[in-house]
Amino acid sequence: MIGTADGIFQNLAAGVRDSAFRVRFWDGTERTYGDGDPRFTVAFDSREALDAVLTLGSLGTGEAYMEGALDVEGDLHEFFRVGSHPSVRSPRLGTRDKAMIVAAYVRNRNTLRKARENIEHHYDLGNDFYRLWLDEGMTYSCAYWDETCDGDLGAAQRAKYEHICRKLHLRAGDRLVEFGSGWGGMLAHAGREYGVEGVGCTLSTQQHEYASERFVAEGLHPRVRSELIDYRKMEGTFDKFVSIGMFEHVGREYYSTFFEKVRALLVDGGVGVLHTIGREREAGLDPFISKYIFPGAYLPTIGQLGDSMAEAGLVMTDMENLRLHYARTLDSWAERFEARVEEIRDRFGERFVRMWRFYLHGCSSGFKWGDLRVFQITFTNGLNSALPMTRSHVYVR
Question: Tens digits of per-residue pLDDT, 181-193?
Fold first, then answer.
């Protein structure tokens, strides 16, 4: 087996030429791949751990790392960079493994019942947990690192909200609806800075309770409020729509349902912003992320988004790809996570720590070197010819 692995690791080193690495096998054998000093060492404690990596790619690698059967010494960032190579992320799965992945997707389809379970799996780990490493505004989505941020995560998250508010052309008294409002950061910003009437929905009990208390504490309630409800059950009439980092949880088969609901809620000519992770080409969600982090999630292509929006009568007016903004956000989260890792380990255990470390660093590498994108799309409900013809309103300070 070591002989088989040797050829694969040589191909990896050839694909990422400036990142030499060392592999230590369970029998003490060590081999170095690539030119120069190794940036990191991968240590396998058993034949089974190596077999999992070779046959299951990122899923096998992630599980071996979680269990401590695979360890990384040295530059973890470079390990994940090499791990973004297509031969690692897209292994030749056998029929049984493919069937298991498909079955897991079917089990986690976002029906009204299952959607709540999928969201609770991740977002109800506890507000205290997320408070340890998110910014002070409790924002869990891609930040916007403009020149005002000076490397500060909280400032970058506020800049993201402001960036979106300008795209929405928010005005005092606007009725704003948000799908997936989380801990309330977007609605709080829009309510405080623009005087909107806002309502958001979430399926996370802990997020809903936190946001509701936040709106009261900031003097925004009842003008701004959170509802513990599925987006499919939202009612009302709104001037503006926003969704940030929620569409990934909708599921491919529910795209038409999502956009038809948006169209039904928005007034004619109403403006919306959809902010979602996506891809240029269709592919299944990374099996490790699907199994352990975001069950039921699916990443749309820009083509799928365009087709589904057009079928609902929604008109794209602008699109940005913010992939490097998300890579930097994830790096900031990973750094803050490690700064509080002992508290997290005491509460959840070493396996959980290693799982989340793999998730945060792996996703960052996906945005830097893989096929992950962040689409921020502005659209209108039908044609709206009264909007500005340039982006100057977004960038003028």
Answer: 999 999 999 999 9
Do 156 and 149 touch, CB atoms closer than 8 A? yes
3-state DSSP assignment of residue 159: helix
One-letter amino acid of 279: R
> CA-to-CA distance for 203 and 115, rounded, in angstroms?
8
Q: What is the CATH number of domain 2-92?
A: 3.30.1050.10
Pick from 226, 219, 218, 171: nearest CA to 198: 226
Reading across the β-sheet that carries 30-33, which strands appear in turn? 30-33, 21-24, 40-44, 70-74
Residues 136/319/228/298 CA torsion (nearest 10 deg)? -100
Amino acid letter, residue 1: M
Instruction: Report d(CA 292, CA 352) in Å as an integer.
Output: 10
Cβ atoms 14, 1 nearer than 8 A: no
Note the pLDDT tens digit of each residue in 280-327: 999 888 999 999 999 889 999 999 999 999 999 999 999 999 999 999
- For 317, other C-beta atoms within 10 Å of its C-beta total 16
Rounded Cα distance between 330 and 142, Å, is 8
pLDDT (tens digit per residue) in 256-280 = 999 999 999 999 999 999 999 999 9
Residue 335: phi and psi, rounded to 5, are: -65, -45
State how beta strands 266-278 and 238-244 pair.
Answer: parallel
Domain-wise residue ranges, the chain: 2-92, 112-395
pLDDT digits (tens, 9 = 90+) for 101-155: 455 555 555 565 556 677 777 878 899 999 999 999 999 999 999 999 999 999 9
CATH 3.40.50.150 fits 112-395, yes or no: yes
Q: Which two tokens stand for residue 374?
A: 């962040």
3-state secondary structure at position 156: helix
> Rg for the chain (alpha carbons), in Å?
22
Q: What are phi and psi of 191, to 5 degrees?
A: -70, -40
Which pTM does this prediction carry?
Answer: 0.91
106: Cβ contacts below 8 Å, ≥ 6 apart: none
Catalytic positions, written as ranges: 363
Instruction: Report long-range pairs for 261-265 (Cβ below 8 Å, ≥24 apart).
Output: 261/231, 261/232, 261/234, 262/179, 262/312, 262/314, 262/381, 263/312, 263/313, 263/314, 263/381, 265/177, 265/234, 265/235, 265/236, 265/237, 265/238, 265/241
